[in-house]
């Protein structure tokens, strides 16, 4: 853990606060500063994105027309699932050539980022503790990118940009601007300000809720794993209280099994909302 924690065992609050700190550029302050970058979230998100793309490329490269292997069969099931969802939401076949692979990439990427929560809480931070300070970095490390609001909001902003592009592509710049002012209450000049305000509120609400939903669920899951880890830490420090040890093992196992469903569901929900929002960009009011 942190260097200052060597003199005495950290309290539960100190342990959690330490594990919730990001490895950042610049000085860490309570003031919002958009020039500060969470290096740990950036590293793991990019690395897992590359890993996800490599796995999909590997499956496509090794695909055969004969009896598929387990890996190919699993990827084919995933591709068919995403493709069927895309066909039911985005009815433009030309758009689906980009939207369906995008949705597949989003699902795999977010699933891999969520799955980092299944690693032992102190595994990578402990490794970083022996390496990071020696390299001149601070002793902070968070490994779940989707428990970082900047990552999830960045993903939702990316979806918003795709939606805006398709609004212009499908309806034309003039048609989309007209829709901004004419919907949802009608093409009346005195309703234009209200219509425009409602459209902006809708875009903002969808984008914020899209990113916050994923962040909130993964952040809560991360906290629960930290609390379970505290049970094991309390037993290790005291050397007594077998109930703490058993509680740590049982609670950790049960929550990890349940969390597999959560990380998959959250990736699926984010992917489905991406398809829905892009599909809405194809609809004319």
TrEMBL record:
One of its GO terms (molecular function) is proton-transporting ATP synthase activity, rotational mechanism. It comes from the Bacteria. GO terms for cellular component: plasma membrane; proton-transporting ATP synthase complex. Keywords: ATP synthesis, Cell membrane, CF(0), Hydrogen ion transport, Ion transport, Membrane, Transmembrane, Transmembrane helix, Transport. PROSITE patterns: ATPASE_A. It is a multi-pass membrane protein. InterPro entries: ATP_syn_F0_a_bact/chloroplast (IPR045082), ATP_synth_F0_asu (IPR000568), ATP_synth_F0_asu_AS (IPR023011), F0_ATP_A_sf (IPR035908). The keyword Transit peptide does not apply. Pfam families: ATP-synt_A (PF00119). It is found in: Cell membrane; Membrane. The chain crosses the membrane at residues 42-60, 98-116, 149-168, 223-250, 256-278. GO terms for biological process: proton motive force-driven plasma membrane ATP synthesis. Key component of the proton channel; it plays a direct role in the translocation of protons across the membrane. HAMAP family: ATP_synth_a_bact. Belongs to the ATPase A chain family. This is ATP synthase subunit a.
């Amino acid at each position: 853990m942190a260097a200052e924690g060597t003199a005495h065992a950290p309290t539960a609050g100190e342990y959690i606060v330490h594990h919730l700190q990001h490895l950042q550029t610049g000085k860490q302050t309570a003031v919002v500063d958009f020039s500060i970058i969470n290096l740990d979230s950036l590293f793991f998100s990019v690395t897992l994105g590359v890993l996800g793309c490599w796995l999909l490329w590997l499956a496509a490269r090794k695909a055969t027309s004969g009896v598929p292997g387990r890996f190919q069969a699993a990827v084919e099931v995933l591709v068919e699932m995403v493709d069927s969802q895309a066909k039911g939401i985005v009815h433009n076949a030309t758009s689906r050539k980009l939207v369906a692979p995008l949705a597949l990439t989003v699902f795999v990427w977010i699933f891999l980022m969520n799955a980092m929560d299944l690693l032992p809480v102190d595994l990578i931070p402990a490794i970083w503790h022996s390496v990071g300070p020696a390299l001149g970095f601070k002793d902070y490390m968070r490994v779940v990118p989707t428990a970082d609001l900047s990552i999830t909001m960045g993903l939702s902003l990316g979806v918003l940009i795709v939606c805006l592009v398709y609004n212009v592509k499908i309806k034309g710049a003039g048609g989309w601007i007209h829709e901004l002012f004419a919907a949802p209450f009608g093409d009346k000049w005195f309703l234009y300000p209200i219509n425009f305000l409602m459209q902006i509120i809708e875009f903002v609400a969808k984008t914020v809720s899209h990113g916050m939903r994923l962040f909130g669920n993964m952040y809560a899951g991360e906290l629960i794993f930290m609390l379970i880890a505290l049970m094991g830490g309390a037993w290790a420090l005291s050397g007594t209280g077998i109930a703490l040890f058993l509680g740590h093992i049982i609670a950790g196992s049960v929550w990890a099994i349940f969390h597999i469903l959560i990380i998959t569901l959250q990736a699926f929900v984010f992917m489905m909302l991406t398809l829905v929002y892009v599909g809405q960009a194809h609809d004319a009011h």
